[in-house]
Amino acid sequence: MDTFTGIPAAAMEFYAALEENNSKAWWLEHKEQYDADVRRPLEALAGALEPRFGTAKIFRPYRDVRFSPDKTPYKTAQGMFLSNHEGVGFYLQVSADGLLAGGGYHSHSPAQLARYRAAVDASASGKALDTNLAALQAAGFRIEGETLKMVPRGFAKDHPRAELLKHKTLSASIAPGRPDWMDDAQAEARIAGLWEQLRPLVDWVVRYAAP
Question: Considering only Cβ atoms within 10 Å of each terminal Cβ, which end of the chain, N or C, has fewer?
C-alpha cells in the first residue's frame, strides 16, 4: 500500500468538476484522476489509521438511483468509515467543499433504540453523554442524527435530556474545509486528532447502544 502523503487539492477540484459533469462519459474520461487523487490517498490514509480506529470501508462512488428521482450516476463526495463495531465508528468525507470528519452511528434496530433511550434516561450514562456532546459542541462539532418531533412515549416531556431522547441516530461532525495541512502527511495526525475528540461519543454508543 502507498505511504500516505496527504489529500491533494486536486481531489476537491475533481468533485467540483463532477458536480458540473455528472455523467458516465465524463467519469470514464477522468477515472484515472479519481484513482490517483481521491481513492489511493484515502486507501493509504485508511491503512495508516486502521490500527487505532478499526477496519476501514471506502464507499463505492456509484449512486443507487433505483428509487431516486435524481438519476445522476455518481456521488459528489467520497466517504470512508472505520470501525471495530458494526454501524458505529469514525467517518471521513472528501468533496468539492473539502474535508468533513464525523463519528457516531447512523442505523438502528428497535432493540438498539430501546437500549439507547434507557441509557439516555439513566442518570449516570445520560449525564456522561451530555458531557461528551457539550465538549464536542464547544470544540466546533455539530450534533446530528435522525430525530422524532416529540419525546418518545414512556418518557416525561420535560425530561432533562428530552432532546437526546428524540434521537433515533446520533453523530457529530466537523468540516475543516480545505485546511493548509490537508495535502501534507501531517493530515494523518490532524484527522486522527479530530477522531480522538469523537472517541468518547463512539465509545459511549458502543457501551450502551451498539447494534
Answer: N
